[in-house]
Amino acid sequence: MLLQLYSLKPRAGFLHHFLPPGITIFLLLLSGRNINALHAQTPFDGIMMPKHNTCIFAGYSQGSFDHYWEADRLRTNETISKFTRRSYSWMAAVGIIDKLNVYAGFPYIQTSSAEPNGGRLDGVNGLQDLDLAAKYQFLNKEGEFGTTRASATIDFTTPLTKYLSDYQPYSIGLGAPQLTYQLLVSHQFKPGVYLRANAAYFWRGYTKAERIYYYADGSHYSDWMDVPSAWTFGGALGGYLFGEDLRLELSYVNFSSTDGDDIRPYNSSQPTNKVDFGQVGFLAQYKPKFAKGLGLIVNHQRTITGRNTGKINTTCFGLTYQFVYYKNKPTNEN
User: Fold this and answer.
1) The predicted structure's pLDDT at residue 143
2) Domain for residue 3, yes or no?
3) Residue percentage of the chain with pLDDT more than 70
4) pLDDT at 119
5) Are 32 and 133 in contact (CB under 8 A)?
6) Contact between 134 and 153 (Cβ < 8 Å)
7) Residue 131: which of 86, 91, 101, 99 has the closest Cα?
8) Structurally, how many domains does the chain consist of?
9) What is the four-CA torsion angle of 280, 288, 132, 1, rounded to 10 degrees?
10) Residue 16 in 3-state DSSP?
11) Is residue 295 a contact partner of residue 323, using CB atoms and an 8 Å limit?
């Protein structure tokens, strides 16, 4: 069942001839989140859950843009007007042992355009992808100038519903399986300041379209589209205040597809496009002393460079709750 709404209910093949210049946005793994999403006990941050601890995350994000890059040309699209994407995300992080965490999560996505868009294009809503991940910390070394940590993450996502991926930018996801490998290194200085760097490779499979022909640097007589894989490189500078009650962080991430085609003039975007972008972000996380285990998160990202993607700015709000899910029974000594 396709979880989507169309004003005219056209098929995707018709849309690609009907739409004015198209746009695409980067849709990644959990919750349609962007790559710089909320850093709080996620598979892609430097935080590890202790053994027998669980952290539950619930978040809301909203991103909008009215400019996009058609190849490397920044332009507007009056028919689509201002595009908005909303995401409601849930994730659980579980500490199996101190060095191994596992994760599971999924999002609910809503997309829409501001009026006027001719009344021809409606947004889509529905469950997106299931995200399963594991993170292993293989280095935790304390030295004279602080503590150095390193971890490796493997993450797998797959669509939860049969949503239409070839309806950009309104699609709620790319509709393809994805396998991600990441290495992360961080160093926390003793005053509480830390540096973090990470690199990740995103392998992506094929997505199925509702048409049997498409053009991507040549004619393809198939309803299967090859979604480009990608690399990301990122870094962050952050610090803790008031003990560890407040965490502030500035970050940058660069995302680059390994191949793919450009959006053609006066055509809509599609999952085969080569999507590149650079984003800067700011994060604040607060853990109030009066509510043990509770955390509040605010995160904002701005896209500053791009190719075949929207110049999107996204703000995220989230709640985390950490608790011990298993306690060892005390032993009686005679």
Assistant:
1) 92
2) no
3) 85
4) 55
5) no
6) yes
7) 91
8) 1
9) -90
10) helix
11) no
